[in-house]
Amino acid sequence: MMCEKISLLDVMAVQMGCMYLSDLRFLNSGQRALLAQKLERLTAEDEDLRDWNDALQYLNGDGQPRATAAQAKAALIAGLSAR
């Protein structure tokens, strides 16, 4: 039996009650701050580096991939908290 891992962006959409993944882009500042708090509870190693960088680019418009999952996670949280 094959198990397919759900992407970090999909996990975030579910946690924020979004019907569609694209709804994550339209979170208000309070919702973005709440999402940042939820992400702080994850360890960087819980997700692949690619997933962290994908989320960073998708939600923050940051096209500069980070070298480690911890760096990408920190940049994502900082970007979500700043808006």
Tell me what you see in this structure.
The protein is mainly α. It has a domain at 27-82. 55% of the residues lie in helices and 0% in strands. It has helices at residues 8-15, 29-40, 49-60, 69-82. Helix 3 runs parallel beside helix 4 (69-82). The relative contact order is 0.17.
Spatial gap, N to C terminus = 42 Å
Helix and strand run: HHHH
Residues in β-strands, percent:
under 5%
Rg value: 12 Å
Shape: globular
Uncertain spans: none
Structural class estimated from helices and strands: mainly alpha
Helix content: 55-70%
Number of helix segments?
4
pLDDT averaged over residues = 94
- Largest sheet, strands/sense/barrel: none
- Number of E-state strands: 0
Topology summary:
Blueprint (H helix, E strand, L loop, with lengths): L7 H8 L13 H12 L8 H12 L8 H14 L1
Helix pairs in contact: 2-4, 3-4
Short note summarizing the structure:
It is built from 4 helices and no strands.
Features:
globular; mainly alpha; 83 residues; 4 helices
